[in-house]
Amino acid sequence: MAAAPHPTSHPEQHLEQSPEQRRAADIIRLLMLYRPLLDAFIIDFFTEGLWAQLPPAWQPALASATPTQLAGLLGDHGGPGAAWPLSLLAFAAAARALAFPRGCPEGSLRPPCQSSHLHPLLRRHVKPKKQHEIQRLGQLLQRLSQATGCERVVDIGAGQGHLSRFLAFGLGLSVTAVESDGRLVGLAERFDQELLRELGKARALGHKRPPRGCRTPPLRPLTPRAPQHAAGRLDPAAPWGEFLLPPNPPGPGPAARNPLGGPGGSEDGGRVLVTGLHACGDLSPALLCHFARSSAVAAMALVGCCYMKLSTAPQPPSCLTGYPLSASVAALPGHQLSYRAREAACHALEEYERRLRRGSTHLRAHCYRAVLESLICTADPDKRHLGVQPGRKAHALSFLQYARLGLPLAGLDPAGVPLDSGAVGAMLEQQHKVVAFCTLGQLLAPAVETLILLDRLLYLREQGFHCALVPLFNPRFSPRNLVLVAARTPLAAVLAGLDKDSEDGDSSEDEDLGEVESPKEGQS
C-alpha cells in the first residue's frame, strides 16, 4: 500500500473537463493508491494480517491513538495530542476534500420523536427518521412541482406509502405509488383508508384552533386526496410503454398500468415528476435511464441506497449496468469498484465519529467479529465469510458470550473451540488497532459514495439534462442524505433558498428524542 497519495496527471487530461469530471478522476486516482485498504473486510483483520499491510510510518501513531484522536482524523478537528505522520494527514485531507459535502450535522443527535412539521395523522406508523426524510423530500418535490407546473408525482419503490401520503394528503399533489411487494401495497392502502376515516371524523367535529401562546407553526390542512397504488416492478430494459412488470410475488387482479404515459399508461399522458426515496441497488440507475428516455418525466428527485447491490459490467456502459452509467467514468482507468468498496459507500460516518468521541462500547463489535472469524477459519477454512451475525447487542456481551452465540451459526460447537486461550486474549487486546483500521476505511467511504453519485450525475449531464447533488437530510440520523435532482429546465430557482427551508424545517424545539435505528453491529 502506498504511503501517501501523490497522483500524477497530465495537463491534457484536464482540458475541457467539468469540475465533476475532474473530481471523479481524482477520486479514482486516490482509490487506486489505497485499494487494499478499501477492499479489505474488517472481519479479516487477524486472518489476513491487515495491520501489517498499513504503511509502516502510520502504524505507531495509529496504534497509540485514542478514539477521540481518531475521531479528529475523521472530522478534521485535530484531536488532543495527536501527532500524525504527514503522509497520513495527506491521505485524510485528500479523502475529505474529494468527498461531496454532506451538510452540517447541526441540532440534536437524533430526530425528534414526533416532527412538529408533519400533520399528526401523517406521523402514524412512521419512524422519526422517516418523518424527517419525507418532510424534507416533500418540500423539494413541491418546489419542483411549482417550477415545472407538474402536479402529478410517481413514487417508485413506495413501500408502505409514507412519502406518497405526505405528497397527496399533505401537499395536495396527484400521486401514484409504485411498489413491487404486493403485501406492502395492501398495507399502504390500509393506512390510506385509516387516514381518510380520521380525516372524516375531524371534519365532522370541526377544526380545533391551537391553544393561545402555542409556538408550533400552523400546519397546512390535509386534503382528502389519497394516492393511487400500483403493484409492479420496474423493468430497466423495457421500452417506455412497458414500464411495469408484474409484482413479486404476482397478486390477483389486473396488471398494473404504466403511470408514466405511453401505451398502456395513464389516460391523460401528461408530464410527471418521478421520485424514489432510498431506491435500492439497480432501481436507482433504472429510474435514471427511464427519465432520460421519456419526455413524459419533467423532473426527478432520487435518493439511492444499498450500493453493494449495484450490478457491474465491463465497458461500454448501458442502462442494464448499475455502475458505471456514464461514459465519463467508464473511460477512466481504475474506475471499477469491488463489492466491498460499494458496501463501504453505505457508510454512517457521522454516527461512527460520534461513537469514537464517546468511546462507545459499540466499537468492540468489530474486534469481536474479527476474532470470531479467526476462530471459525482455524476450525474450518471452508466456512470463511459465512455472514455470521450473533446479534445487534454484541457490544453488551463478553466475548465468551458472543462466541457461544456465533459459533453455532457457523455450524461449530463452542465446546470444541479454545475460547479462553492466550491467542484469543492477544487478539482481543488489539481492539484499538481494529478500530483504527476501520477508521481509515471510514475516511475513504464518503469518497466512494461521491464517485457513484457523480457517475449518475455525469450520465444525466451527458444526456443534456440539468442536475445537482443536494445534501437534503441531516446526516447524523439519515446517512444516505444526498439527493440527485434532475430536470429538463434549469434548477437554480428550485434550489435557491433550500438551505433556509432546512433550517426552518429542522427546528430544535421539537421535544422527546426517540430511538433511531443504528448501523448493524460489526458493520463498517
TrEMBL record:
Coiled-coil boundaries: none
PANTHER family: CGI-41 METHYLTRANSFERASE (PTHR12496), METHYLTRANSFERASE-LIKE PROTEIN 25B (PTHR12496:SF2)
Recorded GO MF terms: rRNA (adenine-N6,N6-)-dimethyltransferase activity
Low complexity composition bias: residue spans: 213-227
Name of the protein in question: rRNAD protein
Gene3D superfamilies xref list: Vaccinia Virus protein VP39
Source organism of the structure: Callaeas wilsoni (North Island kokako)
Domain Methyltransferase: 129-312
SUPFAM superfamilies the UniProt entry points to: S-adenosyl-L-methionine-dependent methyltransferases
Biased composition (Basic and acidic residues): 9-20
Biological classification of the source: Eukaryota, Metazoa, Chordata, Craniata, Vertebrata
Listed Acidic residues bias regions: 501-515
Ranges where the record places region Disordered: 1-20, 206-268, 498-524
